[in-house]
Amino acid sequence: MGGETIEVTGEVWKWRPAEPEAAGWHFLTVDGAAAAEIRYAAIGRTGGFGSIKVTATIGGTTWRTSLFPHKESGGFLLPLKADVRKKEAVDAGSMVTALLDV
């Protein structure tokens, strides 16, 4: 995207819907100083609901996605698609480092 690249490390977690048969989503929480850097880098470029478009890289996998505001942490959520998790052998509880090009 040609902007600032921010590195974040954290534990992948899975949001589980109330319906047991429904699939859950996997996320990496981006908070603290990294979230502040992202907010600054994205001034004037936020989308609906405060989302921020990024190019994310974990290991050898790069994809375009959006960060979404996370009220509980005051930061953002990086959604991890099944394809990315499969390529990088990532699941809930995995520690990962992501590079976010804002």
Can you give me a brief rundown of this structure?
This protein is of the alpha+beta class and 102 residues long. The chain is built from two helices and six strands; from the N terminus they run ββαβββαβ.
Kindly describe this structure.
The chain has helices at residues 32-41, 82-88, and strands at 5-15, 25-30, 52-58, 61-70, 75-80, 95-101. With 102 residues, it is α+β, with helices and mostly antiparallel strands. It has one domain. Strands 1-2-5-4-3-6 form a six-stranded antiparallel β-barrel. The longest helix has 10 residues, at 32-41. The termini are close together.
Topology diagram in text:
Blueprint lengths: L4 E11 L9 E6 L1 H10 L10 E7 L2 E10 L4 E6 L1 H7 L6 E7 L1
Antiparallel strand pairs: 1-2, 1-6, 2-5, 3-4, 3-6, 4-5
Radius of gyration: 13 Å
Number of domains: 1
| Element pattern in H and E | EEHEEEHE
Number of helices: 2
- Quick one: how many beta strands? 6
Mean of the pLDDT scores?
Answer: 91
The order of strands across the largest sheet is 1-2-5-4-3-6
User: Structural class per helix/strand content?
Assistant: alpha+beta
Euclidean distance between termini CA atoms: 6 Å
* Unreliable stretches: none
Percent of residues in helices: 10-25%
Shape: globular
The biggest beta sheet, please? 6 strands, antiparallel, barrel
Key phrases:
17% helix; single chain; 2 helices; 102 residues
